[in-house]
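In this section we walk through a basic example: taking a raw amino acid sequence and producing a predicted 3D structure, encoded as discrete structure tokens. The instruction is simple. Fold the sequence below.
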Amino acid sequence: MIEVLLAIICTTYGCYEDAIVMSPEATAIAMCESGDTQTLGSVDWTATNVNQDGTVDRGAFQFNGYWIWNSHDRWIMRPFANSIGMSSDALFHAWPTAGDAPPRVQVALFEYLWDDGRGWRHWAASRACWGKYISVGG
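The resulting token sequence is shown next.
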């Protein structure tokens, strides 16, 4: 596991430094999706990208707003929200987009979708970048 030190986190109760643990896969894919594509650990937790089809990807892992984050049938978000102790409605109310979610939630969703490598196709478009650092089947 790789520990990534985040910038100082501030809440109404004060500011503190926080570190989260990210798998090598999460570190490489976040760098390729929202970082500088060259430096492992470079991440932009609030990154936004508008796709050619008009859908919007947000957050460090560029979760698609239509297909993943706020999908109409919430195919993945209901079980994911339950896995972190929330309903999908509560999750969407707290964080309307993936870029609004705290880093720990974004990493948890990545790991949920990654599913020990079985979900690599969610990030197939950037495989030329992250494939130098990690390997997956197919």
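Looking at the output, two observations stand out. The first strand starts at residue 2 and ends at 5. The mean pLDDT is 85. In the next section we compare this with other chains.
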